[in-house]
Amino acid sequence: MLRDVSFAVPQGAFVAIVGPSGSGKTTLLGLLAGLDTPSRGTVILDGVDLGSLTEDQRAKLRGEKVGFIFQSFQLIPTLTALENVQVPLELRGESGAAGRAKELLTRVGLRDRMDHFPAQLSGGEQQRVAIARAFSNRPRILFADEPTGNLDANTGARIVELIEELNRESGTSVVLVTHDLTLAGRAGRMVRLADGVVVEDTGDGKPEPGRDGRPETGDGTPSGRSSRAERHPEALTSPVSHLPSPGISDEEVA
Prior knowledge:
The chain is an alpha/beta fold.
């Protein structure tokens, strides 16, 4: 159960959600992605109230604007790496699905592994396929649930670097759930949960100084303190296409 959770994530931000097991991290991620619905309160994704949509409409919205990376990769074992990345594109009826999939797999360093099945790939390679698949629909926001949980430290670090690069290059917002505080420290903003409550909200989600020189894009809403949106209202009042990617505001959700 989540209680008194309220914050916004603007476009291009990199946010880490941390906390002990049972603190509500996965519940929060499921709500933000529209996989679950709150019993109270609202979740806004790119200007759309997810609670006002049917299950099919939420699925359509996810297919258009959301990418998801899972700890267990969730690749289809009977499909090659290339085919796994093509699937969401073909489901959307996009032309040039094969070309887009090849481009992404090359981008994540798997040009020579496209025709391999998941069982023929290492854990790090499988996660790179999953990342390529998550970015295939050019998502406005990417949710990552313990993306390095099944990887060794060195491979995990390379995976996070890849997510960071794609975050910077595409402007996709990233919301990352992790137990690893070192990993979380690489994000521009950290939201800490305990017993379903936000107990700490630090940083603003913007890139670290000197990483890419982009202007500030972050917004924080720490409990008991004013948010950047309150200090700079224009951050939340631009046209719909530039509204914060996901937001959640509720007194209690379960």
